[in-house]
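Throughout our pipeline, every protein is held as a single compact record rather than as scattered files. Such a record has a labelled line for the sequence and another for the backbone structure tokens. This encoding replaces a full spatial description with a residue-level series of whole-number codes. For reference, a complete record is included directly beneath this paragraph.
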Amino acid sequence: MVYLYAHSTTDFNILNMNLVGKISKHSIVIFKDRGNTELYNFERENGKHIVENNRTNGVLSEKSARRLKNTINTFLYTCDMASTVSRSIKELKFVKPTFVTLTLCAPQFHTDLEVKRLLLNTFIVYVQREVGVINYIWRAEKQKNNNIHFHLLFDKHIDWKLIRSLWNQILKNTGYLEKYTKEMSSLSLHKYIAKFSKGGQVSEDILEARYKAGVACLWSDPNSTDIHAISKVDSVNAYICKYMAKAGNGKELKIEGRLWGCSDSIKVLKSCIEEVTAEELNILKEKAKFGDIISMDAEFYTVYYCKSGKILEDLRNLKDKYERCYYYNCIELFQTSIQIQMADI
């Protein structure tokens, strides 16, 4: 059996004429013509170079969004495999993704490139030093107030207090905290409520409590971070991709330089692209016919999707290939040489 991974240079013509599919827990993408350029481009987009040329015209294109989404999904599926493997390898019990949003607490007065270099990069270095994080993905976006903000995905649980403390220290070192403190100290309770009520959407009781908390700490601890409770989300992959991998619609403010990036360790991960037999395809069609899964047809491919993550039920061969691919991803990403028989996973 030939295993065709996402950045393989294998010539499609030397394989038999089974169709090719991209396999995951929630979906199987079946390409209608294994020789078309769409498949070739898809295969190329998932290799080590995916982040090397992500400088754009300032907004995330459909193609770049697809690359980012694939990177996020491959990373999360690898983390999910680590959770399974951790039953036998205790060194992998630390793997628990954390999804964070970082914002500026005052109007931006650095360029986008400077914010990424002085603030974002410093924060990543701090987290690596304090928590030992190695694997991460980041995405930059512009808010309506023209401030840049960041979404970050890490492979370890990080306490929200530590994240806020580290980021606020960086805001202090770069002058943003001083401007925030000066502005907030000048507000009375009445003016604070008027400024942050969002047209009455936030109750006065909540705003008053926030105001008193700010006064108590002399406005030195802004709520500049958000830790998303992804453990309570039905589909973590879809939730995170919704935040991080939205393609531009022409209305968003442009960002200078790169829009997203990831650690070098994530660049080498492989998506699971494998041959799909006629029998396996018929099983998928039958599942879709009876409503067990959803099928979505496009020009070059058909997507079979199952929200419950059980699309590989009754497809043992594909399930084995998926587990094998992400098992090796797990070893690659978390740098463990411990070997486990696939039968034990």
Q: What stands out?
A: Residues 1-47+270-336 form one domain.
